[in-house]
Design brief:
Layout lengths: L4 E5 L4 E8 L2 E8 L5 H7 L2 H7 L7 E7 L4 E7 L19 H6 L2 E5 H9 L7
Antiparallel strand pairs: 1-6, 2-3, 3-5, 4-5
């Protein structure tokens, strides 16, 4: 990180939702504003998401970029223990996986941080 950027939690820039089909999780990440989307594309790689979910042992992570929606979609194979009907996992649908994704931090240019701090008087200190 340099003086021109700050680390900000992803939930300040985007929202997320998880879906499931069998052992596969589908996690969307949608930017709150168009100027945040390039940061997501640049920093939210398949490798970064795979690393975050390594404790769930995904066999693959695929990323789909949806520029018209300002969104990314990640498909994680085999992270849900064979799906809802066979899993003993407390979150067999994987709904909380989106919250884990939103806990990541990314580097944000200071001029965008100033804009975020101006929203509803929130401070990012």
């Amino acid at each position: 990180m340099n003086q021109l950027t700050r680390q900000i939690e992803l939930h300040r820039l985007a929202h997320s939702r998880t879906g499931d089909k069998g052992g596969t999780a589908n996690i969307s990440l949608s930017s709150y504003a168009p100027e945040y989307f390039p940061l997501l594309v640049e920093q939210m790689s398949e490798e970064a998401v795979h690393k975050l979910f390594r404790h769930r042992n995904p066999t693959s992570v695929r990323r789909y970029v949806l520029p018209q929606l300002g969104a990314l979609n990640f498909v994680l194979e085999d992270v849900l223990d064979s799906g809802v009907n066979e899993s003993l996992n407390l979150d067999s649908h994987g709904k909380t996986l989106s919250f884990l994704l939103l806990s990541l931090t990314i580097e944000v240019p200071t001029e965008l941080v100033a804009r975020l701090e101006g929203v509803a008087g929130c401070s990012l200190r």
